[in-house]
Each structure stands twice: as structure tokens, then as C-alpha cells.
Design a protein that fits this description.
Blueprint lengths: L2 H16 L13 H124 L7 H148 L14 H36 L1 E11 L4 E6 L4 E5 L3 E5 L6 E5 L9 E6 L4 E5 L4 E5 L6 E6 L5 E6 L4 E5 L4 E5 L7 E6 L6 E7 L2 E6 L3 E8 L2 E9 L5 E7 L2 E7 L7 E10 L2
Antiparallel strand pairs: 1-20, 2-3, 3-4, 4-5, 6-7, 7-8, 8-9, 10-11, 11-12, 12-13, 14-15, 15-16, 16-17, 18-19, 19-20
Length: 580
């Protein structure tokens, strides 16, 4: 390929990189012996440019795939939100149907009760009329009996002739008494029916009270369901806001990365141009040096030929005597001694490095192990009262470190569900990561009441640590460590990056150092210096994966799995030694 074709090809590449019609001016014509080196330099530059172009294309393709994944996640979130709205509409229609059926039943009960009241009032009025009529008849009978008695007394003196009439009067009296007995029996029967009606009325009233209590219970359940749905809707709205904020953050980061890539591309183009100019200058200089060296070697050859033709002995500048055997032996001995010294120094440096690494790690020895009746432990903290353990299903509980007996169980806050995901002790309360509400809640030792609450910094919070003044939290979505200010409600005041950590199982501040147990069961220790975290040591925590740990006063407590076969978890106590 000729130099003109090379220049034309480089001009086209510059146009693609710079996005314009710019092309550097062709260099001045070079001597023929320089063109070959210039072609090699151009070929090297072209290979480097093609490699860099492939890397750019791969990076842009990776970013496009990330954008497509984020768009797919957004569509899934929208579909899930629409499904939740549909479930809420169905639940609302079902609750309204139940409320309408209860109202209809209550209205029917009221109508039946009013009908029974009207029937009772009608029967009572009839009984009153019957009693009045019976009283009137009894009074009339009594008056007639009195009149008959007076007549009997008046006619007693008449003698035997009137005895038959007296017998008739006695029979009439017996009939009247029988009628009176029948009237009394009818009155008693009516009273019995009235009492039965009163009993039925009391039963109906008791049934009505039961129905009213059931209606109140259903109304309370409906109100509780509405409150739960409102809280859940608030949670989903907060989650959506967090997701939108994360998306905005990612979009800003993508914009920053794009701007950075554009600036790096322009800087690389400028650097390539400078390197090209420097290469051309170095090629010209190299050609000049080669030319001078060839001229100098030609002159030296002519001088040597002149000396050889005249038979003149060469000076010591051009000819040097060979070294003797003693000098070679001494040089070998010195080389051997230097090699042995270097090997010893290398071994000592390796031993010193291993000693430094061993001293920088945390050393712990198992003292005791006890099984735990927990299915999903998520946090551990130790204070003067005992061991605080957090479980995803059972909540927070205080245990005696001697026999692991339960001393106290903190109930969840009233009206809101709580799922503890991490735990740390502040000396005046417990900071708990509530995964149900995506918040950090400060709870009282005594009754578990929430005295302070802050939102999590991101949608995937992990861990909680207290340094004596501030709360620290980690978010797996951003991979950053967040520090809250003295007033946590004001939000995070600073963010840091932990090298080598992508997901956190537990973390704690110990003697001014941040101890982090990641999801790979690796314990790392960091020191905060000059506004950044520097890793002090990293080591595998143990054979079994740990869910939480707590270090204090030369003692290390950990919650670890019992094994793949047995299952469950156990609490282990270690003696701890850390060298400064």
C-alpha cells in the first residue's frame, strides 16, 4: 500500500472518530528510506485504533442492553401496579356487596319486628276487652246472686212449696259457677300465651343485639381492610417513588458516563494526533541517527582498512585482552553469593508479608455453641440486658446469654406489619431495618414502640451499624454505604464505596473500624481515613455461612447455620483477638 492510500485511510478514520470532515494536513514528503518506518508506525496506529473502536462498540452495546433491561423492569412494574389496582377494585366490590346484603337483612329484621309488635299490640287490646267483658259479666252474676239470695231469704218462710224453686236456683248457681271457672281458665290460658309472646319478644331482641354486634364487627373488619389497603397503597406509592428516583439517578449516571466517554474519546483522538506527530518526529530523528551512524561506521571501516594496509597495530581502545581464570572464578563466587543473598532476602520478605497478613486479620476461637429455635434469623445485638435476636417471622426477642432462655419479646407496632432485616444497638434503643415498610425504625427496649423512623436510602437496603453518633446503611442496588446525619430524618449526609463488597449480610462498628460480613461469608475490616474507606483485612468467616455477628470486649457472637443435613441455626461464642 502506498503512502497516499495510507493517508486517505487515516483521514476517513479521523472523520468517523471526530464526527466531522476534519483531517490533518498531509505531512511533508519524506525521504524514501523513512517511508517504510512511517508505514510500520501507521499500521501500528491503525491496529490500536481498530482495537479501541471495538472496545467502544462493545461498551455501547452493553449500555444499550442495560437500557433495554431497565425498560423491561419498568413495564413489569407498571403491569404489577395495574394488577394490584384490579385486585383492589374486586375487593371493594366484594365488600360493598357484603355491606348491602347485611343492610338488606337488617331491614328485613326490622320489618318482621314491627309486624310482631303490631300483632302483640292487637292481641293485648283483645285480651283487655275480654277481661273487661268478663269483669262485667262477673259483676252482673254477682248482683244476680245477691238478688237471688235476698229472694231466697224472703221466700224461705213459704215452706216446702218453694223448695223446688230453691233447687232450681241452686242448679242455676252451679251453672254460673261452672261458667265462672271456664272464664278463669280462659283468662289463665290467655295470660300463658301472653307470657310466651313476651318470651319470644325477648329472644327476638337478643337476636337483634347479636345481629347488631355482628354488623359492628363486619364494619370494623371493613374499616381495618380499608386501612390495610391504604397502608399498602402508600407503601407501593413510596416504592414507586423510590424506583423512579433510582431510575432518575441511573439516567443521570448514564448521561455522566456518556459525557465522560465523549470527553475520553476526544482526549484519545487528541492524544493519537500528538502521538502521530511525535511518531513522525521520532521516525525522522531515528532516520537521522541511522544515517549518522552509517556514516560513522563507514568512516571507522575506512580507518581500520587504512591501519590494516599499513600494518599498524591497533591501539587498546579498539582491542582489549581477555580476562584471566582467577578473575572469572572470583566473579562467579560473587555472583553466587549475591544470588544466595537475594534468595534469602526474598524468603524473608515472603515470611514478613505472611506475618503482616496474619497480624492484620481477626483471630477467634470457638468457646461454646447452642441451637436456636429460629427459622429465619436476620440480626444480632448484645447489650447489658442480654442477647437481642431478630427473626423474619418472630420479630425481636431478648435472650439470656447463659441458657438462651427468652426474657422478653417485643411486639410489632400496632396496626402495621414489621419484618426485621437487620439490627444494631445504640445504648438507648434498637435500630431495626423494617423490610415491610422499607424504613429504619428506632425501637424502645421495653415495649418495642417506635421513637424515630427514617426511609431507606434505596430499594434494596441491607445491614445497619451505629458508630456512637450516626446510623450507617448499605444499599445493594447502588452498591454504596450511606451515613445519616445526627438528625436521621434529614436523610443521608454522605455516601462511600466499599471495595470488593456488593451485598452485605451484617455489619458493625468495632473500635473505630467497620466490620462487614458480605453474602460470600467473607469478613472484611475497613478504616475510614481522608474521606474514604481503606481495607485492612479480609478472611473467610468459617465453614458454615453466618447470618449475623456481634463483636465486643474480646468476645465474638455469631448466628450460623447448623449444616446442610441437620438444618436450623445455632448461636456460637468465640474468644476474639485483634492486633493493632
Amino acid at each position: 500500500m502506498e503512502s497516499k492510500d495510507i493517508d486517505r485511510h487515516i483521514s476517513e478514520l479521523w472523520k468517523r472518530v471526530a464526527g466531522g470532515d476534519y483531517a490533518p494536513e498531509p505531512p511533508a514528503a519524506l525521504p524514501p528510506d523513512v517511508r517504510q518506518s512511517n508505514m510500520e508506525t501507521m499500521r501500528l496506529l491503525r491496529d490500536n485504533f481498530s482495537k479501541a473502536e471495538e472496545e467502544w462498540k462493545a461498551l455501547l452495546a452493553a449500555k444499550d442492553s442495560q437500557l433495554r433491561d431497565l425498560a423491561a423492569q419498568l413495564e413489569e412494574t407498571r403491569a404489577h401496579l395495574s394488577e394490584l389496582k384490579q385486585h383492589y377494585q374486586e375487593a371493594r366490590e366484594r365488600a360493598l356487596g357484603e355491606e348491602m346484603s347485611v343492610a338488606v337483612n337488617l331491614e328485613e329484621s326490622r320489618k318482621v319486628l314491627e309486624a310482631q309488635k303490631k300483632n302483640h299490640a292487637r292481641e293485648i287490646s283483645l285480651l283487655k276487652e275480654l277481661l273487661e267483658r268478663t269483669k262485667t259479666e262477673i259483676l252482673g252474676l254477682q248482683e244476680r246472686v245477691e238478688s237471688l239470695r235476698s229472694e231466697r231469704d224472703a221466700l224461705r218462710g213459704r215452706g216446702v212449696s218453694l223448695s223446688s224453686e230453691r233447687d232450681d236456683l241452686a242448679d242455676a248457681k252451679a251453672g254460673l259457677e261452672a261458667k265462672l271457672a271456664d272464664s278463669k281458665e280462659a283468662v289463665e290460658k290467655t295470660l300463658a300465651e301472653l307470657l310466651a309472646e313476651r318470651k319470644n319478644r325477648r329472644d327476638d331482641q337478643a337476636r337483634m343485639k347479636e345481629m347488631e354486634a355482628r354488623i359492628k364487627e363486619l364494619t370494623g373488619n371493613l374499616a381495618a381492610a380499608k386501612a390495610d389497603w391504604g397502608a399498602e397503597r402508600t407503601q407501593w406509592r413510596e416504592m414507586w417513588d423510590r424506583e423512579r428516583s433510582v431510575w432518575e439517578t441511573h439516567r443521570q449516571e448514564f448521561a455522566v458516563w456518556e459525557e465522560r466517554l465523549r470527553s475520553e474519546r476526544e482526549a484519545w483522538t487528541q492524544k493519537m494526533r500528538e502521538q502521530e506527530a511525535a511518531g513522525v518526529e521520532s521516525a525522522a530523528g531515528l532516520a537521522k541517527v541511522l544515517k549518522e551512524s552509517s556514516q560513522w561506521s563507514e568512516k571507522v571501516t575506512q580507518v581500520l582498512k587504512l591501519y590494516a594496509l599499513k600494518g599498524v597495530e591497533l591501539p587498546s581502545v579498539f582491542v582489549s585482552p581477555s580476562p584471566d581464570a582467577a578473575f572469572v572464578r572470583a566473579r562467579r563466587n560473587v555472583s553466587r553469593a549475591l544470588a544466595m543473598a537475594l534468595a534469602g532476602l526474598l524468603l524473608m520478605s515472603v515470611a514478613a508479608w505472611r506475618a503482616y497478613v496474619w497480624r492484620s486479620e481477626a483471630h477467634y476461637k470457638l468457646l461454646s455453641s447452642s441451637p436456636l429455635d429460629l427459622t429465619s434469623p436476620s440480626g444480632l445485638a448484645v447489650d447489658k440486658d442480654g442477647l437481642w435476636l431478630a427473626d423474619w417471622n418472630k420479630g425481636l426477642s431478648l435472650m439470656d446469654p447463659r441458657d438462651l432462655s427468652t426474657l422478653r419479646v417485643l411486639p410489632p407496632p400496632a396496626g402495621t406489619p414489621m419484618r426485621p432485616g437487620a439490627l444494631t444497638d445504640t445504648g438507648s434503643g434498637l435500630w431495626t431495618l423494617d423490610m415491610a415498610q422499607l424504613r429504619y425504625a428506632r425501637q424502645s427496649y421495653r415495649d418495642g414502640s417506635i421513637t424515630e423512623s427514617v426511609k431507606t436510602p434505596g430499594p434494596a437496603p441491607q445491614g445497619a451499624a451505629w458508630d456512637g453518633y450516626s446510623l450507617w446503611a448499605f444499599d445493594a442496588s447502588s452498591g454504596l454505604l450511606y451515613k445519616y446525619a445526627l438528625d436521621p430524618s434529614a436523610g443521608a449526609s454522605a455516601t462511600y464505596r466499599l471495595e470488593g463488597v456488593k451485598s452485605v449480610a451484617c455489619m458493625q462498628w468495632v473500635d473505630g473500624q467497620l466490620w462487614v460480613l458480605d453474602s460470600s461469608n467473607v469478613l472484611r475490616r475497613y478504616a475510614l481515613k481522608d474521606g474514604a474507606f481503606r481495607e485492612l483485612s479480609s478472611q473467610v468467616f468459617g465453614r458454615e455461612k453466618a447470618a449475623a455477628f456481634w463483636a465486643d470486649d474480646g468476645t465474638l457472637w455469631s448466628v450460623e447455620k447448623s449444616g446442610d443435613l441437620t438444618g436450623g441455626y445455632e448461636l456460637k461464642k468465640y474468644s476474639l483477638k485483634v492486633y493493632r
